Hints:
Layout: H1 4-24, H2 26-45, H3 49-79, H4 85-117
Helix pairs in contact: 2-3, 2-4, 3-4
Amino acid sequence: MIRFRRLFKSFVYAFRGLFRIFHEEQNLKIQTFAAAIVIILGLVVKIRPIEWCILILAMSSVILMETINSAAERISDVLRPRINSYVKEIKDITAAAVMVSSLVAAIIGLIIFYPYLFK
């Protein structure tokens, strides 16, 4: 049986984490702003439903990777001092994952919007 009180608490914790990283991470604010621009542009040019699905997946992957990056940074800081070389590598690798997902999302956006903007 579903425990609704427990389920509600898990959503509260999840939103708390999301609000915390949004408040603390500048890159997440920039990525959210870019996603808002993409959504507005998609509404203006009236992209197709399949294109919406692809864009939503691309945008959410960037935000997801930024969330994972933030969590990995915090875990790394707790487990080892900041001067440890492994901590630097972990942070660099998770930052690279964010960068790759951002580049892929930008390429997807260009592919989808190009026909609408440059007919």
